[in-house]
Amino acid sequence: MNIFSLLTILSFCLNGSGSEVQRKDAPISAPSKSVTVAQGEVGRWAGNCLRCSFEKRVWPAVMGTCYYPVDMDMKSGSYTISRRTTGGKLETAQIIVTETPCRQEDLKNFPKKEFVDVSAVNQARAAKEAAVIGPLIGYKPSVRPAVFDLPVGKPVKNLPKGEGNFGACRTLDGQPRDRHTGQDYPVSVGEPVLSVGNGRVVLAASHFYSGNAVYIDHGNGLISEYFHLKGFSVKADQTVTKGQRIGVVGETGRVTGPHLHLGVRWHGACINPGFLLVDPSDLPEVK
């Protein structure tokens, strides 16, 4: 073998065959899109969206935008989300769920002792009520079309700042209780409570823990909850409009005083309602 042949073989071994060598002008895959969303918050993916998916859950877009509500108890980490555009294109991204520290709320000398040491009768009542509520607020593979817009309306005309206790870890006289699923607003007894959007009342009832409560289905899996009312003026299956009076503020159920508890479930996820009261462009966005 002459020296020319040997150099040719060495060059081939070092550089590889022409089909394996990456050319300088070859396209490089762009990094996957992502969005970071804290527990209890909502991410968005705007632009000609038709359908959205988050893990194994699927739902229609709202006005061309995919919204991804993150439950307050969802484990932190990276999850896959996707969207189908109006042009038929399927796109995927990562949603990075970060942990929201649980605010500790210790309620001492709780005034309503029946909620501290709950009797067997009241435990049975609460369990029966929970069995009715569960299917209403859980994820459903088929949902009514959205009849709401974002941001949603205020639940009272002059809405004060919330008490910042969404997701709080609570104890009553030292006894652990479930996390707080809504945002409390310090509103006086008798103040009119308004529906945050167009929708259909799915339940209006007096419950042990929630007191007088109203649940409204706004379509696209969005359910709003209004607890501890002095009274309500709507009934199940009634259609309501945004800003319509549905009841008045009270202090029924497990409370220390008068206030409005506003809760939101979206595709089964328990989220902070405050994130639906802001301009949706302020929500974390897939980029």
UniProtKB/TrEMBL annotation:
GO terms for molecular function: metalloendopeptidase activity. This is M23 family metallopeptidase. It comes from the Bacteria. It comes from Larkinella humicola. SUPFAM superfamilies: Duplicated hybrid motif. Residues 179-273 form the M23ase beta-sheet core domain. Pfam families: Peptidase_M23 (PF01551). CDD domains: M23_peptidase.
